[in-house]
Amino acid sequence: MLSTQIPGFGTLTLDHLVLDYNGTLAVDGLLLPGVKSALNALAAELVIHVVTADTFGKAADGLDGVNCRLTVLEAGRQDQAKANFVNRLGGDRTASIGNGRNDALMLAASALGIAVILGEGASMASLNAADIVCADIVSALELLMHPLRLTATLRS
Q: What is the pTM of this model?
């Protein structure tokens, strides 16, 4: 569990981290440098879930050695499927990270939504749904590893 008090935002008490794979953790299906070690470090405090359409069919191999739970979604209404996944976990105890249009509902359903902008960009829907926007995934994961960074960004 990760818990931090943020003035003007409230107390974040998180048990789960839900992430998209392609465009968030990976580019062209390949896991980005630094992601594996950051996720494994966070797994000591949060249950890590990767929920993806697996566009390139490489998620399982890319996540080999990562302490996470992988869910590959069926085609159709993936945006709603991701939001439903977060809601089943308990959105008020979940952080999520994504970049695509199909991540916007997931980001909005989470206590903390983080959008990332990698090589394929980020949809405006996800940017608008997020609490925070980061230029890369490792920086986003480090926000959770160093919660005072969340306070610096989210306090009012």
A: 0.96
